[in-house]
UniProtKB/TrEMBL annotation, chain A:
NCBIfam families: PRK08230.1, ttdA_fumA_fumB. Its EC number is 4.2.1.32. Transmembrane segments: none annotated. It catalyses: (2R,3R)-tartrate = oxaloacetate + H2O. Tetramer of two alpha and two beta subunits. Its cofactor is iron-sulfur cluster. This is L(+)-tartrate dehydratase subunit alpha. InterPro entries: Class-I_Fumarase/Tartrate_DH, Fe-S_hydro-lyase_TtdA-typ_cat. Keywords: 4Fe-4S, Iron, Iron-sulfur, Lyase, Metal-binding. It holds the Pfam family Fumerase. Belongs to the class-I fumarase family. The gene is ttdA. Residues 12-281 form the Fe-S hydro-lyase tartrate dehydratase alpha-type catalytic domain.
From TrEMBL, chain B:
The keyword Oxidoreductase does not apply. Heterotetramer of two alpha and two beta subunits. It comes from the Bacteria. Residues 5-177 form the Fe-S hydro-lyase tartrate dehydratase beta-type catalytic domain. SUPFAM superfamilies: FumA C-terminal domain-like. Belongs to the class-I fumarase family. Keywords: Lyase. Coiled coil: none annotated. Pfam families: Fumerase_C. This is L(+)-tartrate dehydratase subunit beta. One of its GO terms (molecular function) is L(+)-tartrate dehydratase activity. The gene is ttdB. The lineage of its organism: Bacteria, Pseudomonadati, Pseudomonadota, Betaproteobacteria, Rhodocyclales. It is an enzyme of class 4 (lyase). Its EC number is 4.2.1.32.
């Protein structure tokens, strides 16, 4: 493929995919919401789940963004060092965001800080936000698209604990964030927790955590135990959909971690709302692709 | 039977409502969020829409301009109401607004404002933006368009817009604050139990 044609092809695919994920939830989230709806017995909470399901059907049928807040667009890229368009990817994703904004249509959500002007295009300084991981010896690229809405971004919080506070301090931090600020962020939430060495490393991992499938488990046994304990514990609090109380609180809790300084425990929480709009797509070197997050998609 | 409020809303329409009640709205619903609140309260600019007896929606929609120059409501769900807590009490006082629709709870200042001004705050289920858009019959006006799509005051004519769950009533009762207190009470013993199982530092 001619390089110019290849750039155009990847831009078009990413524009369509970015727009698509604003209209239809990923398969794992859809399934989890259906399960939670079935498990709910509180009448008001049940009616909220009904409204949510009705909304998703209408969005699909009318081909419209299911939530008006289509967020700031973030791309999390795991690119092979030999992916042929590695150097072009940044510009491709900028243009894909411009394209998706027209196709969606997406709401204009990029406000230049300090100038305090909405750019009207969903692009701006460092927006769409790109997060990079380079995979050695690979010529493929996997891209996670995430629509970071205002509501689900607001609870975000990070801090550095002293080791004396231990993992108990992590538990307390997560509970405090979810039962205070999480209540307004369109629960049932997918809770991402980063346990790491400093604020920014923990924060990045907490966001990566909500890109993982809802029912996935951390490979470390202790971390997986903590995911389970936090999920059960938060559900016991009974926040319910929209904070109106109910049998459950969260879609799940995912933890990502790194090694840490012996004197610090960095911890962060990121939350995804019930309308958790993310998508995962993998491109091969010839730009053939596979959508991993949504079953049965035709772009 | 559906309880339907109609703008202009009168004090007596709201007196019997309690937190947790579900109502619907027919009439006019004006989007009004962060900057519009700031302009009225801090910058003392006059709102371009008369809200006496009216209803506002904490929302920043997706709107499409049609070929005939009219606007089409594509997607309109509520935004986090708590962001307007700083301004809402004074906003109710100055505008005479009766119904504030949004997402999540608001704080004690808004609850006091609702009591003083005989107004209510109600929750529309967050994220259900297409459902909401289908209840908008027409966008009649668009004011302060210099603020961009999310912050423009979109004047919507709506029919049976809802469900709206009353979260602050005219008595100043606050559903989400009550719920939060309940969550905080419940969480202490749950956390205690988890603490024993996460003593990974030995």
């Amino acid at each position: 493929m001619d390089k110019e044609v290849a750039v155009q092809s990847l831009t078009d695919t990413m524009a369509k995919f970015t727009s698509y994920i604003g209209k239809r939830l990923p398969t794992d989230v859809k399934q989890k919401l259906a399960d939670l709806r079935t498990l709910e017995t509180n009448p008001l909470a049940k009616s909220i789940y009904d409204s949510m399901a009705e909304n998703q059907e209408a969005a699909d049928k009318l081909d419209r963004p299911s939530c008006q807040d289509t967020g700031v667009i973030q791309y999390f890229i795991s690119a092979g060092a030999k992916f042929p368009l590695l150097g072009e990817l940044e510009e491709i994703l900028q243009n894909a965001t411009l394209g998706a904004t027209k196709i969606g249509p997406l709401r204009h959500n990029a406000v230049e800080t300090f100038d305090e002007k909405n750019t009207g295009t969903n692009t701006g300084s460092k927006i769409p936000w790109l997060d990079w991981e380079i995979v050695p010896d690979s010529d493929a690229a996997t891209i996670d698209v995430y629509m970071a809405g205002g509501g689900c971004t607001l609870p975000g919080k990070a801090t550095v604990l002293m080791p004396g506070q231990g993992y108990e301090g992590v538990v307390e931090f997560v509970f405090d964030v979810i039962t205070s600020r999480g209540v307004n962020a369109c629960p049932p939430l997918l809770v991402g927790v980063g346990v790491s060495t400093s604020v920014e490393t923990a924060a990045r991992l907490s966001k990566r955590a909500i890109l993982r499938p809802v029912n996935s488990k951390n490979p470390n046994a202790n971390a997986a135990l903590m995911e389970e304990l936090l999920e059960e514990g938060l559900n016991e609090v009974g926040i319910g959909p929209q904070g109106l109380t109910g049998n459950n609180s969260v879609m799940g809790v995912n933890i990502e971690s790194s090694a840490r300084h012996p004197s610090t425990i960095g911890v962060a929480v990121s939350t995804g709302c019930w309308a958790h709009r993310r998508g995962k797509i993998r491109f091969n070197a010839d730009l053939s692709y596979e959508i991993l997050s949504h079953e049965g998609v035709v772009l | 039977m559906k309880k339907i409020l109609q703008t202009p809303i009168k004090d007596e329409d709201l007196e019997d409502l309690n937190v947790g009640d579900v109502v619907y709205l027919t009439g006019h619903l004006v989007t009004c969020r962060d900057v519009a609140h700031r302009r009225l309260i801090e910058q003392k600019r006059e709102l371009p829409v008369d809200l006496k007896g009216g209803a506002i929606f904490h929302a920043g929609p997706i709107v499409r301009k049609k070929d005939d120059g009219k606007f089409e409501m594509v997607s309109i769900g509520p935004t986090t109401s708590m962001r307007m807590e700083k301004f809402e009490r004074e906003f109710i006082k100055q505008t005479g607004v009766k119904l504030i629709v949004g997402k999540g709870g608001m704080g004690p200042e808004t609850a006091a404002g609702c009591q003083e001004g005989k107004a209510v705050h109600a929750i529309f289920p967050g994220g259900c933006a297409v459902l909401a858009a289908t209840k908008v019959e027409e966008i009649e006006r668009a004011e302060w368009q210099d603020l961009g799509m999310p912050e423009t005051l979109w004047v919507n004519r709506v029919k049976e817009f809802g469900p709206l769950i009353i979260s602050i009533d005219t008595k100043g009762k606050n559903l989400i604050e009550q719920n939060k207190a309940r969550f905080n009470e419940k969480k202490a013993p749950v956390m205690e139990r988890i603490f024993d199982q996460v003593k990974f530092i030995k």
